[in-house]
Amino acid sequence: MSIRGRLTRLLGSAEDLTPSYTHEFASQAPNLQQTLDIFRDQWITAFPDDLDVEAGWVNHFDPTVDTRVPWANGVIPDGLRGKSILELGPFEGYHTAMFQEFGAKSVTSVEASRTAYLKCLVVKEVLGLDAEILYGDVPSYLAASDEPFDVVWASGILYHQAKPVDFLEAVASRGNYVFLHTHFYDAPTMSTLGVRSRFNSDGDEIVEWRGRSIALHRYEYETDTSQGVFAGGPRSYAMWMEKDDIEFILREMGFSRIEFGVIDYDNPTGPGMFLLAARDS
Prior knowledge:
alpha/beta, 281 residues, seven-stranded mixed sheet, single chain, three-stranded antiparallel sheet
């Protein structure tokens, strides 16, 4: 048998070795729009007006529209300036950029979505951000590293977890301040919201944690969870916690000072809130 025949037998035909993707090349000199168009029609976030580019439709980079970072900056004594920040799930990097604007000493962002991670690298380059952006599973990162931070920023990630109690405990063990923006399950209001059809009570669980029975409510995603503009978790489902249980865990972990920025029971995608928890001194 010829060498080519042996290779074909071992590795398969040339057609079998052909990648399933195609290489795409730029057609213009380097420019911001061309860079953002790597993810054309996949952005949710609109970029600052002074960049004069087209991307998404939500003005997350504008602190007068997305008020979460400026709100937290006003609640934390001395603000975010000089603070080390661990950001979990940066998505499209808009809070990463705001941290720099408010003078953070360092920012470490961990993103599990491949597409979101690459978007964050684009944002980092386009805006010239000084941040460490890591690609990996967030719970695994928290389990593998014990590096402390001044602030742990968990915005839009708790309600995408399959084991949210473990996740929240890990988050609360890593910083002096925890910012949490999340949906939560509230039975009285859930029945009036369209999102109620996403919940499967057959999959609900009870978790025992420090003498408390914590109810977890199974939420089923109804869209493609692969790439694009999907803003969910890595599985086809997640487990939502109830508001009182979230507060209980934070307080048990040493965060007796909890200030709420928003508590919204009427959000059509599910009741939500954002808060800042401060560790007892």
